[in-house]
Amino acid sequence: MAVPALIVLAGIFRPRFNESGWREAIAYSKASVLVGILWRFPFYLRNWLMLGFPIYPPSANCVEAFPCEIPFNGGVASFHSYIHNRGAGLGRGLGALILLPFNLTYHAANFHGAGGIGLTALALGPFGLIAAWRDDLGRSLALLGMALTTFWFFTQQESRFLIPVYVIGSVFGVLDGSISAQWPRGGRVSYAGAVIGCSLIYGLFMIGSARLIDLKAAISSRFAEQHRQVRFPFCNHLDT
Amino acid sequence: MIGQVVFTRTSILGTVVVSLLLAIRPIRRLLRTEPSSWKIKIDVIPATVIILVLLVTAIGGLAEIVGDGRTMPLRTTCSDRRSGSEMESSVRYPITAYRLPCRCRGFLWGTYVHWRESRAWFFAVATLAVFFLIAYSVAIRAGLEQQKAWWVVALLQPCRRSTLADIAPSSDALYAGFLLVAACVGLQRSFAVQAILFGLFCGFAMATNILG
C-alpha cells in the first residue's frame, strides 16, 4: 500500500498545476510504474505459476474467485485467522485513529510486535512539521508519513510495517521548530533535552534487556549451551 | 562481515583485535590533521548510541540460538515437521519459500539452511548499517545539517522494531530502506532523469514486501 501512495504523492508534487506540468508528471509516473512492475513482476509471477495465485496463501475471498491449489486448507485458514488477530493492533474506528499518535507512543506494548517508539516523534515532531510545512520536500514527507500511517491503521497494524514512518517522525523531531525556536533558550533546551534523553535511555534499555541473553551467550559458550538445552530440549533431534 | 566467512568466536575476536591494532596509526594520523570537509561531523551522544547498537547487534549475532526472539525459523521448522500427514504437501508447496516475494528473504533462508542460524543473524550488522545510512540520507535531504542528521539515526534506537537485530536481517528493514530511498528520489522537483530510478526503487520495495 505504501508504493501507490508514494507514486501519487510524487505525481502531485511534480506539476505546477498547469496542463504541461500534469502531462509531464503522468509521463514520468508511467515510466516509473513500468520499471517498478518489470522488477517486481517475476516474484508474483513465480507464485502464480507455482501456486495458482500471485499472493500466497490467498485470502478466503480470493480462493473462491480464483481457484488455486492449496496444500492444506485448515492450515491456510488458521494462518489467516492468526494474521487477522495479529493485525488488530490498537483498534479500528475514528476514535482509535485520532488517539493513534498517543497510543503508539505510550501504549505500544498493547499490540503485537511493538516495544515503543520513544517520545521524540510525538513531543518534538509537531514543531518540526510546522517548520517544514513551507518546504516542498518537508510537506511531501509529512503527507507520505500520514498516508502510510492511515493505510497501516486500516490494514495490518504491525509495528514493523511502520518503520518508514518512524524515520520520518525522527526527521521531524530533529527539525528545528519555528514555534520552539521562539521559546526562551533555556526552556527549549531543557524540554528537547529531556525528551531526547528519555527516548535514548528507553531505547538503550530496551535493546540491552532484549539482547542480554544473546550477549551473555556470545561471550560464554557454556551459558549458550545451557540455555539452549533449557529452551529447546529436543533441538538436537530436530537437527538430525 | 567476518562471520560470513569464518564463524568462530576466536576468529572473529582475533580479527576485531587485529583491525583495531591496524587502525591505531591511521586514526592517530587523522586526529593530527586539520579538519577537512569530508570528515564526518557527528556529536558524541549519537555516535556512542549508534556504535553501541551496532556492537550489540554484532556481538548478539555471535550467539547460539538461545533468545526468544530468534527462535522463529526453528519454530517454523518444528511445526512443519510436526504436521505429519501434511508433510508431503508442504514439501511440494514450500510455503515459507514461496509465500513472500522477497529475494533477500530467499538469501536469508539459504544462510539458515546451509550455515548456522547465528551467521544469518550476523548479517543484521550490514543491513542495520545500510538502514542507518538511508535514514541519514533522508534527514540530509530534508534539509538537516550533518550533525543533526546523525541525531535522527540515534533517535531511531527507541523504535525497537527498527533497530533490534530481530528485525534487521529480515525483509522489513530492507523494504523500509527501499521505500525511503524511493521517497528521496521521487519527492523532489527536478525529476526527469530520476523517474526510472524512482520506479526501480518502488519495484524493489514491492518485490520485498507484499504489503508494499
What does this structure look like?
The complex is a heterodimer of chains A (240) and B (212). Chain A is built from 15 helices and no strands. By secondary structure, chain A is mainly α. Chain B is an all-alpha fold and 212 residues long. Chain B has helices at residues 9-32, 44-61, 72-82, 87-92, 95-98, 103-114, 117-122, 124-141, 146-154, 160-163, 171-186, 194-208. Mean pLDDT of chain B is 67; it is low at 66-103. The chains are: A mainly alpha (240), B mainly alpha (212). The interface between A and B is large, with 92 and 93 residues.
Write the layout of secondary structure elements.
The complex is a heterodimer of chains A (240) and B (212).
Chain A (H helix, E strand, L loop, with lengths): L1 H11 L6 H33 L8 H6 L7 H14 L7 H5 L1 H7 L13 H4 L1 H8 L3 H19 L8 H12 L3 H4 L3 H26 L1 H8 L1 H11 L3 H5 L1
Chain B lengths: L8 H24 L11 H18 L10 H11 L4 H6 L2 H4 L4 H12 L2 H6 L1 H18 L4 H9 L5 H4 L7 H16 L7 H15 L4
Helix pairs in contact in B: 2-8, 2-9, 8-9, 8-11, 11-12
How many alpha or pi helices of chain B?
A: 12
Our Rg estimate of chain B from Cα atoms comes to 20 Å
Rg of chain A, Cα atoms, Å: 23 Å
Which percent band covers the strand fraction of chain B? under 5%
Provide a compact summary of the structure.
Chain A has 240 residues and is mostly helical. Chain A has 15 helices and no strands.
For this entry, give a set of tags.
heterodimer, A: mainly alpha, 15 helices, 72% helix, B: 212 residues, mainly alpha
